[in-house]
Amino acid sequence: MLFDDFKLERHFARHEFTARHLISCSDAESIHLRELLDFEPGSRQKLEALWLGYSDSRGIPELRAEIRKLYTTVQDRDIVAHTGAQEPILNLFMGLIGPGDHVITHFPGYQSSYSVPKNLGAEVSLWKARPEEGWRLDLDELKRLLKPNTKLVILNCPHNPSGYVMPAAEYAALIAILRERGILLLSDEVYRGLEARAADRLPAAVDVYENAISLGVMSKAYGLAGLRVGWIATKNERVRLAFEKQKDYTTICGPIVAEWLASLALRHAGRLLERNRATVGANTAVFSAFLERRGERFEWVPPGGGTMGFPWRRDGKSMEPLAAKVLEREGLMLITGKYFDTDEKYFRLGLGRKDFPEVLAILERNLD
Ligand SMILES: Cc1ncc(COP(=O)(O)O)c(C=O)c1O
Questions:
Q1: Helix axis angle, 320-330 relative to 356-365, nearest 10°?
Q2: pLDDT exceeds 80 at position 328
Q3: Per-residue pLDDT tens for 29-75?
Q4: Burial class, 145, CB count within 10 angstroms (exposed 0-12 / middle 13-18 / buried 19+)
């Protein structure tokens, strides 16, 4: 089975490690292994004492115990650890979706959420966010998209690429719609914890809906992409078993060193999130100041959460020529809407990295 090229990941594969400056990344700033180990005295000795055999396919017990604490109603058995968030997305579709099924997915968004089901022969409808309404998702539109064979709806809040966070009342209404029809919800919560206002943080879907799958990962809000540790949490046993069975064909079990480090990091989740929220907040202010200078040319909806914003050119023209120019001239990688199957007037701003102000200054000096 040959899947469609994952446009964004192919583009990153080509330029991420040769470009000198990145302005469109989705992860929060990472840290070195030594800083993580410094979180707990004695951690180096414990790391050295790890047994390097196969481990529990669902994730090592220490890891699942820490993941459980991110939720309010979840038990360890409801969790299946994976390699990143990409593996569970693939396993969900491989294990539960096929020809004859209909999937509705938040759009624009992470390409695997629509390319994988499409390539597996499922019918896919795009639930389009409305930039003119602050990237809002319209529940009436969702109702119009529903079909008798709709099996799964995918929501990603805080959203990649816009930073949209659905208001709590609409989230509750969405779950009520899905509950009435017994439709599964994949809630991609990889940016959860980085809401601009703590009060806007939505409850994890697994805590409020029995047919939900909450997707989490160390890469984004926690800034530890190199660990490649992600997970799903669901109370639907049939769904959980589908993930467990599918994993037998993908990774069998996770890398124990990474799972152990992830459990250490999650014991200090609050500290990591606070640091990353501060970086995103400061960078959001830097971009707002840029818009005060350049507002005749660009516009955005300030993100409600996550690590990104998705501004656009007011004149509707493509950002691709500028992206090509800054890549060639400055080694600066800027991702436009083209890599999200949407209008090229948009570009993705990664607000999670510490060097954002300097990289934005490089972009700005190339504008005229
Ligand atoms: C919304 C969303 N889900 C899942 C993933 C995959 O995460 P990972 O790279 O950690 O596997 C990404 C990565 O960009 C993402 O933005």
A1: 110
A2: yes
A3: 999 999 999 999 999 999 999 999 999 999 999 999 999 999 999 99
A4: middle
Tell how far the Cα of 110 is from the centroid of ligand 1, in angstroms.
7
The alpha-carbon radius of gyration of the chain (Å, integer) is 20
Count CB neighbours of 197 within 10 A: 9
Strand order through the sheet with 335-336 = 308-309, 347-350, 335-336
pLDDT digits (tens, 9 = 90+) for 155-185: 999 999 999 999 999 999 999 999 999 999 9
Q: Of all protein residues, whose CA lies closest to atom 10 belonging to ligand 1?
A: 84
Residue identifier of the C-alpha nearest atom 5 of ligand 1: 85
Q: N- to C-terminal Cα distance for the chain?
A: 46
Nearest ligand 1 atom to alpha carbon 87: 11
pLDDT of residue 56: 98
CA dihedral 280, 283, 285, 290 (to 10 degrees): -150
pLDDT, residue 2, reads: 84
Atom of ligand 1 minimally distant from the CA of 219: 10
| Cα 118–Cα 119–Cα 124 angle in degrees, nearest 5 | 5
The answer to whether the beta carbons of residues 206 and 234 sit under 8 Å apart is yes
Contact assessment for residue 260 and residue 47, using Cβ atoms and an 8 Å cutoff: yes
Domains of the chain: 7-32+270-365 (3.90.1150.10), 52-268 (3.40.640.10)
Q: Are strands 308-309 and 347-350 parallel, antiparallel or unpaired?
A: antiparallel
Q: Three-state SS for 93?
A: helix
Picking from 251, 242, 103, 243, the residue whose alpha carbon sits closest to that of residue 184 is: 103
Residue 47 Cα, ligand 1 centroid: separation in angstroms? 27
The continuous run of DSSP H or E covering 103 comes out as strand 102-107
To test the ligand 1 pocket, which listed residue (25, 220, 310) has its Cβ within 8 A of the most ligand atoms? 220
- Ligand 1 contacts (CB < 6 A) are 26, 84-86, 110, 156, 160, 188, 190, 217, 219, 225, 230
